[in-house]
Amino acid sequence: MTPTAIQYDQKHRETASTVVKLNKQVNTLSLSRLFVILGGGALLFYTFQLESLPLVFFCFFGLLFLFAYLVRKQSQLELQKNYFEAYLKVLANEQALAEGKLNMYDHGEHFENGAHPYSSDMDIFGTYSLFAQINRATTKQGIDLLASWLDAPLQSNQIQRNQEASQELENESEWIWDFQAKLLANLNHKLDIKAFLTNYFQDRNFQFGNAFMRFYIKAGPVLFLVVLAGSFFVPKLAGVATLIGLFHILWALAKAGSVSMFSSRIDKIGGVLGSYADAIQSIEDHAWKSIAMQEIAGELKQNRGTASISFAFKKLAGLINNLDARNNVFVGLFLNLL
Q1: Is the torsion defined by CA of 251, 254, 256, 261 positive or negative?
Q2: What is the greatest pairwise CA distance in the chain?
Q3: Following CA atoms 52, 58, 60, 65 in sequence, which dihedral angle do they give, to the nearest 10 degrees?
Q4: DSSP 8-state secondary structure symbol assigned to residue 49
Q5: C-alpha 69: how far from its chain's center?
Q6: Are the CB atoms for 292 and 165 separated by under 8 Å?
Q7: Does residue 131 contact residue 146 with C-beta atoms inside 8 Å?
């Protein structure tokens, strides 16, 4: 075996072992969630028999927080598992290319142009082309950018800069595999995320609510929790907490249609943005030596004097993922109650 093949094989075995461990942990958490549901139901039934409303509230919220913790922990592990599974696919693809097989990334057939002065004769685009060999882009913008570099002549200084960057990346195999794995979920997605989000947030159909609602969604949970805590000392407040909770649920149900319409259009985009954030941060944090890579990392970090691009992407991804959280029955009930 060649040194490169040995490196692929070793990394593949390490990653496969990690995936097996993560699978076991995810399955354990799934069973734990089932136990919380069944055991929690029995516990709540028992507390109802005691006719102590504060105790019922305490057990109810305790179970909700425990369940939410397990859901969050499992989600984190599943994200890790997905990453390492993507890493395995990246390694398998690199091995396949080394053996003369086809690249799993776009081959650039749609860029073929018989009238082009050189791309057709030199097999720049197509199944067994230069583009098919070097392309590792998963986004439409990345694919188009690489094609534009190959489709038009560059100035000699730009060619030299690109060669220096390529030479540096040649010695960063594990960084490249990590970068590819973080973005692999976007493979074959033709959606232009930038255009989609721009149109989405400018759509007037998604603008609803008023100043009072924006204030109350922040103050309401605090009011509810204060009254709930007070019910442990003044039992009569338990009834007030119940009424507030019911009011919140009814109000949430009244606005459910608008919220669902808002969140359904952007479903799963949070995960895509999160993968972008991780990949961009990899560029920002790496100690680059070539001028071209240093400039790219510098532009991402500065972002016109504000926070880095990766931070902005993570923040937006978090906001969008929070919309998805309401689709979980238990989490949705808890959020609506607050």
Answers
A1: negative
A2: 85
A3: 180
A4: H
A5: 19
A6: yes
A7: yes
Q: Is 276 exposed, middle or buried (0-12, 13-18, 19+ CB in 10 A)?
A: buried
- Give the torsion sign (CA, 216, 217, 218, 220): positive
DSSP code, position 184 = G
Flag whether 147 is in a domain: no
Show pLDDT as tens, one digit a residue, over the chain (338 residues): 566 677 788 899 999 999 999 999 999 999 999 999 999 999 989 988 887 878 888 888 889 889 889 988 998 899 899 999 999 999 999 999 988 999 999 999 999 988 888 888 889 999 999 999 999 999 888 999 999 989 888 888 988 998 999 999 988 989 999 999 999 988 877 777 777 777 777 776 666 667 777 787 778 788 888 887 888 788 888 888 888 888 877 877 777 666 666 666 666 677 888 889 999 999 999 999 999 999 988 888 765 556 788 888 888 888 777 766 555 544 555 555 55
Tokens 């290319």 sit at which residue?
A: 97
CB 300 within 8 A of CB 309: yes
With beta carbons less than 8 A apart as the criterion, state whether 157 and 66 touch: no
Structural domain of 33: 1-101
For residue 72, CA distances in Å to 40, 79, 253 come to 18, 11, 25
Tell me whether residue 239 is in a domain.
no
Of 269, 278, 270, 275, the closest CA to residue 308 belongs to 278
Structure token pair of residue 181? 């794995």
Domain count, the chain: 1
In this structure, is residue 5 part of a structural domain? Answer: yes
Q: Is 298 within the bounds of a domain?
A: no
Contact 151, 111 (CB under 8 A): yes
